[in-house]
């Protein structure tokens, strides 16, 4: 899948965002008296739980992004939004359906 995306889109840069413990979202949910991710199925324990993946990302010359307290989708949304505001076209690849909110004339 990765090789097909690279071949089809020929990106100038690639970044992979990793989840950390989402303390910021929990705090926002608590303020609104909401239980964060209540009723959702637990996330699969692959990705970051497999410690060999970040070095592979780096070996390809790509960037690993991880910000303590933020989930990967928060990082992706911030980057895509800021890139769009700067006139930079981006392509977001994610299995998270919330990423559809990022679709615009500059982000797909």
Could you write a compact summary of the structure shown?
35% of the residues lie in helices and 6% in strands.
Characterization of the model:
- The protein has four helices and two strands.
- The chain has helices spanning 2-9, 23-31, 53-59, 72-85, and strands at 15-17, 63-65.
- Strands 1-2 form a two-stranded parallel ribbon.
- The relative contact order is 0.18.
- The model has no long low-confidence stretch (mean pLDDT 80).
How would the blueprint of this fold be written?
Blueprint: H1 2-9, E1 15-17, H2 23-31, H3 53-59, E2 63-65, H4 72-85
Parallel strand pairs: 1-2
Overall radius of gyration: 15 Å
Strand content: 5-15%
Distance N to C terminus: 17 Å
Helix share, percent: 25-40%
Largest sheet: 2 strands, parallel
- Supply the helix-strand structural class: mainly alpha
Q: What global shape is seen?
A: globular
Q: Tell me the number of helical segments per DSSP (H or I, 4 or more residues long).
A: 4
Number of strands: 2
- Quick check: average pLDDT? 80
- Element-level helix/strand string: HEHHEH
Strand order within the widest sheet?
1-2
Contiguous low-pLDDT stretches (5 residues minimum) are none
């Amino acid at each position: 899948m990765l090789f097909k995306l690279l071949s089809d889109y020929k990106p100038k840069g690639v970044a992979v965002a990793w989840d950390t413990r989402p303390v910021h979202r929990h705090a926002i949910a608590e303020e609104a008296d909401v239980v964060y991710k209540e009723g959702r199925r637990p996330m699969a324990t692959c990705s970051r739980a497999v410690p060999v993946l970040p070095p592979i990302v780096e070996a390809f010359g790509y960037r690993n992004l991880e910000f303590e307290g933020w989930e990967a989708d928060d990082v992706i949304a911030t980057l895509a939004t800021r890139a769009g505001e700067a006139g930079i076209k981006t392509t977001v690849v994610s299995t998270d359906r919330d990423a559809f909110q990022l679709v615009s004339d500059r982000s797909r």
